[in-house]
């Protein structure tokens, strides 16, 4: 019948394979409410619903009887709803995985390269379950507000001051409130947020953000668990004796929960389908403090259903009774096992001062999808009822209200008017949908049947016709209530289960988008700043490098030039002065009796003249060095004026040549006076006469032949003049005279011989020690040594500057690479967050069946 419109086999339902698998899974893993059938890997399904309304195919009624047609139509609509729910659930499941991956990526990046925490105003602020304009800082629990999903889709606008390296990483706590999930709480003690921000290190903010991300990851995991949970819980609460248990029994078409005119339900009773408990009907009584695990019998006590009355009245031992019952009614009639969702019905103790708090806490639990409030038509709303509805309406927005014991009311229209007026005040939203949400019934009038075991095999138990066409006892009204409740549960389940995930995802993605946008901007600014700085630093570094090389060469060249000139000058001067010694008489000749002092004084005068010249050379070198130092100092000032790289030094040139002194000054050249210094036998021209005389005399006396030609020639000439005989006669007197003349000559020549001989000796001695070169080397070397210091200072200044510039350049280059990576990452994060935000925002959790068929 319906296959021409939709393939029913593909839909989840009790008869298909998915349901069987789920049951197997549940029996193995659940803790009472069922478990997941949704996984990340669940393949995409075609989207059937994209708007708030979805036209349904009409099933031709002519082919079926009206009753069958209604049932089929209803079942079909449930399945469509379920399909839509599953699509949204799968989409949210995938989005949770995506967002978790995004968050993990951000966590890694943040640990390596702390993310900037912005001061921003987010236009696309946190999505809240009740009011977009009133954004609480904390995520609210499950909401049933139909208007909650209207969302601002604008991108968050970052209106921060342009970030710079100096800008605080956390601008202000006030602005950080714009973050929702990733908001860093700075309320620590008495310290003001501003002070705290100042005191926070990059790493501190990074680790705070890291903590927030970890929390978000944990919360996303629990949200995933929640959306994968297929069960739905309906909490039935109300005043004492309002008929809550009777109402639950009527829904179950079974006398299960204890009913009494006296308050008798003192323990929360949760009724579940027995198929969850392997089809066994029994009570699992959970003692106070225990955490229920159906698989672990140590966490509860097992009782038969017949013990319920006693157990429900034993609040001192048990806090919760899990009641597993088998409902054999067909899915379209059964509430617990309706073929779409596992519903658990919770009968709460009547509201009084003792239980109020507990029930309120219970109602606030996230897994409570629907709150059904039972009010006695006779008593209307008591104070505690009003307080409860007021609070619950705030949380759940819509409350399903059952006005029970309506049979006891005579003026029914007045009663309903008065009660609706009260509902309008307590929960305007519920009132606005009062046709669907406020029901006037008499629960005790609903016919029930015996439990399956007590019935003779009619397991299909057809309850469908009971009360049909007979509203005398209000059965039709109750059936209408049932349909509305079932529809409400299914509808609200989508909201209560999926909306928190959607809301949270939107808030996380909104935060991520804002964070990414801010960091993208920061990175962009960083890239620009670094580009500008590198554009300045790189040429500056190259100029310094060029200057450094040029000046280093120049300084070395100048020093070498100066050293060479000093060397040459010293060499020239010394050679000149040394060449000069011996050519003049340095001291007055004091006479033959003071020839030693004459010689010593002459030697000292000679040495002094040389030394004097050395001093002059040193003075010359000093002046030259001072000039060279000034040049270097000027170069230093020229390049490093006012910087810390170069400090001007004062040059004290008087300290030059004080350590390594001249050889003469050190006494290395002593030139001791010797006897030979007085006689110069090598002066031939002056003693030639004496020599000839001696020769002749010697030759004549010895008759020597074969004499050398000179002697022979003198002998011949002397013999020819005075004759040989006379020669022999005069030889002795001649010799005496000659000696005398020689002695006179030698003595008279001492004043000349001494300087000459001493000069010669000194020169020889000086030559032996390589005096001129070593002195020139010493003096010029001292210049080099002295100038080496300012030259080194200059070079070191350049090196420091170069090092600093190179460090800056390297740092900036490294920062640039980080900033570029960061820019790329945050641009990607921004796009991912934005796209995912949009995709999730487009999920319409409330798409309901076309108007008119929304409530079946
Ligand atoms: N006339 C009439 N009596 C009802 C109706 N529903 C319940 N009662 C009676 O009201 C009394 C209280 O019903 P319960 O279901 O025990 O009320 P309750 O709210 O569960 O009570 P506690 O949970 O113990 O506070 C019982 O005697 C019921 O028979 C109704 O619709 N009409």
Can you give me a brief rundown of this structure?
With 856 residues, the protein is of the alpha/beta class.
Looking at this protein, list some descriptive labels.
856 residues, Rossmann fold, 18 helices, 54% helix, alpha/beta, binds guanosine-5'-triphosphate, nine-stranded mixed sheet, disordered C terminus, two-stranded parallel ribbon, disordered N terminus
Class derived from helix and strand content: alpha/beta
Superfamily at the CATH H level of the domain at 229-466? P-loop containing nucleotide triphosphate hydrolases
How much of the residues is beta strand, in percent?
A: 5-15%
Overall CATH class of the domain at 229-466: Alpha Beta
Number of helical stretches of at least 4 residues? 18
Question: Could you name the CATH topology of the domain at 229-466?
Answer: Rossmann fold
> Largest sheet, order of strands side by side?
5-4-6-3-7-2-8-9-10
Give the name of the CATH architecture of the domain at 229-466. Answer: 3-Layer(aba) Sandwich
Gyration radius from CA atoms, angstroms:
60 Å
Distance between the termini: 20 Å
Q: Which residue ranges are poorly predicted, with pLDDT under 50 across at least 5 consecutive positions?
A: 1-61, 120-177, 454-469, 703-707, 848-856
Cofactors, ions and other ligands in the entry: guanosine-5'-triphosphate
């Amino acid at each position: 019948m319906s296959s021409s419109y939709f393939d029913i086999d593909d839909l989840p339902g009790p008869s298909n394979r998915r349901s069987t698998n789920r049951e197997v899974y549940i029996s193995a893993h659940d803790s009472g409410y069922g478990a997941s059938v949704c996984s990340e890997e669940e393949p995409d399904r075609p989207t059937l619903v994209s708007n708030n309304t979805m036209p349904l195919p009409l099933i031709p009624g002519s082919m079926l009887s009206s009753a069958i047609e209604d049932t089929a139509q209803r079942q079909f609509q449930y399945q469509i709803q379920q399909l839509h729910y599953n699509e949204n659930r799968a989409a949210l499941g995938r989005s949770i995985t995506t967002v978790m991956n995004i968050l993990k990526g951000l966590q890694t990046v943040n640990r390596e390269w702390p993310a900037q925490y912005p001061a921003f105003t987010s236009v696309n602020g946190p999505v809240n379950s009740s009011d977009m304009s009133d954004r609480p800082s904390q995520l609210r629990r499950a909401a049933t507000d139909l208007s909650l999903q209207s969302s601002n889709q604008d991108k968050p606008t970052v209106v921060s001051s342009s970030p710079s390296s100096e800008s605080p990483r956390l601008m202000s706590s006030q602005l950080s409130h714009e973050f929702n999930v990733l908001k860093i709480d700075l309320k620590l003690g008495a310290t003001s947020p501003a002070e705290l921000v100042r005191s926070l290190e990059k790493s501190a903010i990074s680790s705070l953000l890291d903590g927030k991300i970890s929390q978000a990851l944990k919360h996303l995991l629990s949200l995933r668990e929640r959306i994968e949970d297929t069960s739905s819980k309906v909490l039935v609460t109300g005043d004492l004796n309002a008929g809550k248990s009777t109402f639950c029994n009527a829904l179950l078409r079974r006398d299960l929960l204890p009913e009494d005119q006296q308050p008798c339900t003192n323990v929360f009773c949760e009724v579940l389908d027995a198929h969850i408990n392997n089809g066994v009907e029994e009570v699992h009584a959970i003692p106070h403090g225990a955490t229920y695990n159906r698989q672990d019998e140590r966490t509860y006590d097992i009782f038969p259903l017949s013990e319920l009355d006693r157990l429900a009245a034993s609040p001192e031992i048990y806090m919760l009774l899990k009641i597993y019952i088998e409902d054999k009614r067909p899915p379209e009639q059964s509430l617990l096992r309706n073929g779409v969702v596992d519903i658990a019905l919770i009968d709460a103790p009547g509201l009084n001062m003792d239980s109020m708090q507990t029930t309120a806490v219970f109602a606030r639990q996230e897994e409570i999808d629907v709150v059904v409030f039972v009010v006695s038509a006779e008593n209307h709303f008591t104070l505690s009822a009003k307080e409860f509805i007021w609070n619950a309406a705030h949380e759940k927005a819509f409350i399903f209200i059952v006005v029970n014991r309506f049979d006891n009311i005579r003026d029914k229209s007045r009663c309903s008017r008065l009660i609706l007026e009260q509902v309008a005040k307590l929960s305007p939203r519920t009132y606005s949908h009062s046709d669907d949400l406020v029901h006037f019934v008499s629960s005790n009038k609903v016919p029930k049947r015996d439990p399956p075991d007590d019935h003779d095999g009619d397991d299909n138990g057809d309850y469908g016709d009971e009360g049909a066409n007979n509203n005398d006892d209000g059965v039709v009204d109750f059936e209408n209530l049932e349909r509305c409740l079932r529809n409400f549960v299914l509808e609200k389940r989508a909201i209560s289960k999926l909306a928190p995930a959607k809301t949270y995802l939107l808030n996380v993605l909104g935060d991520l988008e804002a964070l990414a946008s801010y960091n993208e901007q920061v990175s962009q600014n960083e890239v620009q700043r670094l580009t500008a700085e590198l554009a300045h630093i790189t040429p500056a570094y190259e100029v310094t490098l060029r200057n450094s090389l040029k000046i280093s060469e120049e300084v070395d060249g100048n020093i070498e030039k100066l050293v060479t000139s000093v060397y040459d000058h010293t060499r020239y001067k010394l050679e000149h002065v040394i060449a000069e010694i011996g050519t003049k008489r340095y001291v007055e000749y004091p006479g033959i009796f003071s020839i030693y002092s004459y010689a010593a004084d002459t030697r000292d005068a000679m040495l002094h003249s040389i030394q004097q010249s050395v001093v002059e050379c040193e003075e010359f070198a000093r002046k030259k060095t001072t000039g060279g130092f000034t040049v270097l100092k000027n170069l230093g000032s020229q390049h490093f004026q006012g910087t810390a790289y170069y400090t001007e030094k004062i040059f004290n040139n008087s300290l030059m040549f004080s350590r390594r002194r001249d050889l003469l000054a050190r006494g290395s050249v002593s030139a001791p006076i010797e006897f030979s210094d007085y006689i110069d036998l090598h002066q031939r021209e002056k003693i030639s006469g004496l020599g000839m005389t001696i020769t002749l005399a010697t030759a004549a006396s010895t008759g020597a032949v074969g004499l050398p030609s000179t002697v022979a020639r003198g002998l011949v000439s002397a013999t020819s003049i005075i004759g040989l005989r006379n020669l022999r006669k005069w030889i002795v007197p001649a010799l005496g005279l000659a000696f005398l003349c020689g002695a006179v000559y030698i003595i008279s020549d001492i004043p000349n011989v001494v300087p000459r001989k001493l000069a010669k000796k000194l020169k020889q001695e000086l030559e032996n020690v390589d005096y001129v070169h070593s002195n020139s080397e010493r003096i010029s070397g001292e210049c080099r040594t002295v100038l080496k210091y300012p030259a080194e200072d200059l070079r070191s200044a350049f090196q420091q500057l170069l090092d600093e510039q190179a460090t800056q350049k390297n740092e900036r280059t490294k920062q640039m690479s980080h900033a570029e990576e960061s820019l790329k990452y945050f641009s990607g994060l921004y796009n991912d967050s934005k796209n995912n935000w949009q995709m999730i925002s487009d999920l319409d959790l409330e798409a309901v069946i076309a108007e008119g068929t929304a409530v079946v």
